[in-house]
Specification:
Blueprint (H helix, E strand, L loop, with lengths): L5 E8 L2 E10 L3 H8 L19 E3 L6 E6 L7 E12 L3 E5 L9 E13 L2 E13 L4 H24 L4
Antiparallel strand pairs: 1-2, 2-8, 3-4, 4-5, 5-6, 6-7, 7-8
Protein name: ATPase
Organism: Sphingobium fuliginis (strain ATCC 27551)
């Protein structure tokens, strides 16, 4: 898998970390933004609780949920809130608040931001995730893992957008 143009842990301390990724996507900003609201098309199902990205949804409006349906074995389905939209500027920016994946079990707050800007024949998408609070295992060890996982999702967004994005 090709690496994003930029991927890095940009800060880390005992109390949190920040990661940044960016990539050029050969699709317009409207296509990219629309796809952000369809994570089942670009998020890797291996990084879900259900194992299937088709169970993901994201309502790209303030207060909207980045959620996942988790089928229950006993007929009683579960669900996960991965994040809550705190800012939505169509075709420009989408910002969520939430502790992703294993960070949900920690006393942390995370802010995930997607910035979209025209870039030649397409768009440049910057993704940053800033996490702060108390992590029992420390922030330094988990930051590079989170960076890799988020870079993988950004690659998925690129593939989906460049495959037509409809």
């Amino acid at each position: 898998m090709a690496a994003p143009a930029h991927s890095a842990v940009t800060g880390s301390s005992d109390h949190g970390f920040a990661v940044e990724n960016s990539i050029h996507i050969s699709a317009d900003a409207a296509t990219v933004y629309r796809l952000l609201g369809q994570p089942g098309r670009w998020w890797n199902g291996q990084h879900t609780y259900s194992g299937d990205a088709a169970n993901l949804s994201l309502d790209p409006v303030a207060g909207g949920c980045f959620c996942e349906k988790v089928p229950g074995k006993d007929g009683r389905p579960g669900s996960v809130e991965h994040g809550r939209v705190i800012q939505a500027q169509p075709d420009r920016q989408l910002r969520l608040s939430g502790a992703l994946g294993p960070l949900q079990a920690e006393a942390v707050t995370g802010t995930l931001t997607f910035d979209i800007a025209p870039d030649g024949e397409g768009a440049r998408v910057g993704m940053s995730y800033v996490v702060g609070g108390y992590l029992r295992t420390g922030a330094a060890g988990i930051a590079p893992i989170v960076d890799r996982v988020l870079a993988e999702q950004l690659q998925g967004l690129k593939r989906a957008a460049e495959a037509g994005g409809q």
